Amino acid sequence: MARILCIETSTKVCSVCVAEGDAVLALAEDNEDEYTHAEKLNVLIAKVLEESDLKFKDLSAIAVSEGPGSYTGLRIGVSAAKGFAVALDIPIIAVNTLKAMSAGVGDKNQDSLLIPMIDARRMEVFCAGFTGDLQPAFETRAEILSSESFPEAKAFTKVLFFGNGAEKCRGVLEPLGFEYFPDVSASANGMAKLANEKFKESDFVDTAYFEPFYLKDFVAGKPKAS
Questions:
Q1: What pLDDT, on the 0 to 100 scale, is given for residue 223?
Q2: Prediction pTM value
Q3: Record's Pfam families (predicted)?
Q4: Alpha-carbon distance 203 to 70, whole Å?
């Protein structure tokens, strides 16, 4: 059975788990309100390996959240995954951040439209649509929120918005009777089953050329005039 180290760094939550098959053996997360992934990631990885009584040599693959999400966070996670994959001579599995967020929610909401979303600043979110069994309802996109957003929702009787971008929707879409769960966060825990499915199908990325799915180009902030 595959033993997979899952790395999630697409948001301010730095999350790591070790999974054996679909089962999570150990999970460690840092929820500080700043991007401290560079300092915390290796510490969390060491912790989950110790808790699961495994060594690096016992791993079958590295799974990493591919995005969308924070440019800096994704770079850190993917760089770490590449380093481990090369050193251990094992493959990398890329998992869509938004689909992984939906994995746990879908189990209890089979007849719903699931819309995970990540805050992209101002009134914009990164989002995607999934049915309860994680089939795509609409593709990953950057959405500028308005009362006209998410026309796909009309085909469903129950629509769930979740993730750190969901709170933005409340004032814009609330009259339509949708449900909002802004406290649901991206977590390595949601990656385990998806990563195992990809492992069984040998659905691996090219370690040398793999890049995160940023969705939007990175724009560096301009320094303030002195």
A1: 44
A2: 0.91
A3: TsaD
A4: 24
